[in-house]
What does this fold into?
Amino acid sequence: MKTSDFDFELPEHLIAQTPILKRDSSRLLVLDKNTGNITHKSFTNIIDYLNKGDVLVINDTKVMPARLIGIKEETNAVMELLMLKTDVEDEWECLVKPFKRVKVGTKIKFGGNKLEAVCLDKKEEGLAIFKFNYVGILYEILDELGEMPLPPYIHEVLKDKDRYQTVYAKKIGSAAAPTAGLHFTKELIEIIKNKGVKVVPITLHVGLGTFRPVSVEDVNNHEMHSEFYSMSKETADILNCANTNNNKIISVGTTTTRTLETIIRDYNEFKECSGFTKIFIYPGFKFRAIDTLITNFHLPKSTLMMLVSALAGKDNIMKAYSEAIELEYRFFSFGDSMLIK
It folds into this structure.
């Protein structure tokens, strides 16, 4: 299976540069994965595809303003860090620009002396480990000094930081938003709950995989970067009950899907747990955790294109994308939505 099998031509003007005015007024393409049938709706119509007893699973991760512009202490050169993940307190894996100017021991200062990053280890693919030194609370300092890490295809300035957060964002730690959730409003979630649909959270902190394209032609040779996930006992119990009663599990986004499928793969049931996942879902994968997926329109040749192709079939996805392009749907993070049922 080749990466180029998941390529398509996308007119540049269809890449959404700004969020739509009202979150739930985005368009919704509904794809039946069994028949290939396509219908076109508004996102507010999502309620029509959810039934009493179903479980809607959301990712409650919160994006950090993790893009930092600083000054290299030795030369006063301008440096950029994108904080990705941490395993040890105050030590972060970061994407560095320009990478060649960094070595072990390099110090970068942000906001004068409010925040300092010291390189502990230089890795590959533009990555390095930094120790952060500061006085106070790190996330409060990031709120003051950091910028939202918007994807590189977005060139417009984001006027409202909250528009790159879901309305249910809670647990800070992501380097990118779980964008399928950006379409939900608090009011729409209440309508969904009032219909008898259970809405439950999981957490997956989105990391480097969002920013890294697939660089190999043979899909089997691609390696995913690990991302932290967790599931509560309450969520696990509700999901297991849904399976017992043959109710549908609807996943909001590929991040939620990867978490649910990781847990089912590892434990054969949903359970309270946390860890790191490198699961790579592409055609041939057997889904065991989800029935339905709410997602956005993804980049050509990306792991996300492979995931939705695994769920709905590559031919169905390519047909749906072709129709979306013809009808000028908005693509990528701030774009329109798709329901694969």
Summary: Helices lie at 138-145, 186-194, 233-244, 254-267, 303-312, 314-326. The chain has six helices and 17 strands. Residues 254-267 form the longest helix (14 residues).
